[in-house]
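If you are new to this repository, start here. Below is one unmodified record pulled from the training split, so you can see the exact layout before writing a loader.
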Amino acid sequence: MSLYNHSIYNTQQIRKCEQLAYEQFNISPQVLMERAGKAVCDILLQRFSSAKNIAVFCGGGNNGGDGYVVARLLHQHGLVVTVWQVGQQDNLSTEAKTARQACKQSGVVIQPFHVTADLQHPDVVVDALCGIGVTKKLREDWLIVIKNMQALDVPVMAVDVPSGVLADTGQVFDIAVRATITVTFIGLKLGLLTSHGIAHAGEVICDTLQLPNELFSQVQATAEQIQIKSYAHYLKPRSRDWHKGLSGHVLIVGGDVGFSGAARMAAEAALRVGCGLVSVATRPEHAAILNASCPEIMSHAVKDVAQLESLALRADVMIVGPGLGQSDWAKSLWQYIGGLKLPLVVDADGLNLLSHVAKVKENWILTPHPGEAGRLLKIKPQEVQQDRLQAVRALQKRYGGVCVLKGAGSLILAPDTLPAVCDKGNPGMSTAGMGDILSGIIGGLLAQKIPIDVAAKLGVLLHAMAGDLAAEQGERGMLATDLLPYLRRLVNE
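And here is the target side for that same chain:
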């Protein structure tokens, strides 16, 4: 397995890899096409072993060439294969022409696609229409092909990238293929792991096409995929003489009238990932309730800044925002907090208050969802989603510190590091309180002297993994607090 399997590349970097493969290692484009086709063929035969009839949709570029190789190899394995040829074939590359000719000579039926074509009912569809070539809205005739393909309602294997998905961003203009499995080549693409692309890619399998590590070491990746094994040493067992003071003290500021639950969830999450002490500075109306509902929380009634100051002196990390609101009470506390040197985790209304008066700090972690990110950047949430990588870079540049852009395929960016992507998590986590749990996790890790960038990445990953474990009982109806027992399990594995 390549050392670079979890690096993420843009289309320009992928093409650079292909160029180096030929120039330095004498691996021709034709060889890469054969390897790509074999990778898809092998996975299809393994995952859909009962399939007998396959429809392969081939476009006019090299992605279509990969499809012709897939069709030929499946035919050689005794499957009934039909290739539906889409678009002009006159401009095929030399490699794609060779692949098409070999496919035709092997006995595979190749037919031009038209709207009235009888697609019959294949067991599996292979999408080899566009690959990484999509950079703009597809023409109407291509959209018709995709609609017809999806109407078959059978498993779809996408070759490299589902057609209609922008490989670099995950943006989808109109419609795109919804794949069951995407087999991507050489390196992971960001568009498969974030934004709308993550919903279209299905299971993503990366095949490096046997390219050597020496090649990848010459190409700077765009981002990295977060892996728990990279951070396991931060969660090693504690010595027998450990005490709670060594695990840090988190102070949570939040819980305006009617929102005490947000502060409580953040507090419990911090405790469940191993923080030694957690205090909550909240409205006087909530102090007793918080302490009664979770006696491990030290709950403090705070009317004004003067009462917050003494609490801040004892804390190692502050989480500000869960249920904070934007009242005069919240604004006065936020103004004081902005001048502190304490490491901060800022979420929810803390971010909304920040959007009114921008500050720059290097020792805070900001955790906006697309709506909050839009307010921080003075753009629409849709613009954030169109290019999430650009958005997280803009956030980090404007506000400093570490930025976590939440959502499907959360992005984490710290100074002087590659952006990190978390492709775990599930739709069941789209519910109230999940952001409060995340801020508590990150703050709890940060209090344990874990470096700020690692605390953000590891926190996002633990949050997503706990959500996936909770989803084993069903995504619909999942509560944010359902993650808490799984967090404890994960930090002790």
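Two things worth knowing about this chain: The domain at 7-224 is CATH 3.40.50.10260 (Rossmann fold). The chain has two domains: 7-224, 228-490.
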